[in-house]
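Support case: magnesium ion complex. Customer-provided input:
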Amino acid sequence: MKFTQVESFRGDANTIRIVGHRGARGILPENSIIGFDFALSIGVDLLEFDVLLTRDDVPVITHNHELNGAATRGPDGRFINGAGARVASLYFEDIECFDIGRLNGHTDYGRRFCEQAQLDGVRVPKLSELLELVSQPKHQRVCMMLELKSDPEFSADRTAKEKLVSVVTCEIKKAGMEDRTLLHSFDWTLLAECKKQVADMPTSYLTQLKQHAEDIGEETSLHSTPDLRPPDISLPDEVKKAGGELWCPHFKDISKADLMRAKDLGLCVAVWTVNEPDDIDAMIDLHVDAIITDYPGRVQRRLSDRGWLWER
Ligand code: MG
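Agent response - structure generated as follows:
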């Protein structure tokens, strides 16, 4: 079965697609409407973002299960210290009180994105706000890589996983976006639940080998991802066996042989998160289908300088 949204992520002989990671995290607040809007405005029509549920079951776009102290200010305008309250313990109206427009440059996380604009009045968006944005006729080619985040406190709780998949996919279907959305996760049990509940939507399997875990200052997903160890195990074969349409490895984990194998299996291959020019060049040389990046403009520039296209 061919899914149109999977084909949107697939490159060709002259094209490597660009996916805006959390919008354009390198330069604008992550997982914010202003960041998504910016990526769309520069012709990047594939968006990656993270979805969690609030206490009142509102799907919101944010990465960590606890409010990230490096990127979140309270109503008093001060950064909250360390990890904040759990999103699952807050009502949406509580979350609206926090501002995610700035990064604290005195934190490890803040130092990673020293070019990010400093804004005020930016809120954690509801999933429905992004769906409304991409529903505009001018954005009809936009496709979404919707990452379902697995709660480390409920890793064995099937009911919580069933609810997350059900609430989120109902919202997608209500907006008529089921053929423009990929369901994406590190947690393969969540993706299996997606297969059960919405077999008519494609899935994207994230992988990260433990030796390349280096996401400083943010919540890791290693607790939920299968511990797959090449060369004994072929990652693309495991993704295919699990029923995936797209394989999304950390860019340091992929080899030419694995990429060829994935293509033989019919998988689309998008690598995350590629930000440095040398790494971008290496992924262009490898000829992956899509590059997920915090700096979509940088990837455009490298592709352009080297005679590649990114739009289809
Ligand atoms: Mg993500």
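The domain at 4-64+127-305 is CATH 3.20.20.190 (TIM Barrel).

Case will auto-close in a few days if no follow-up is received.
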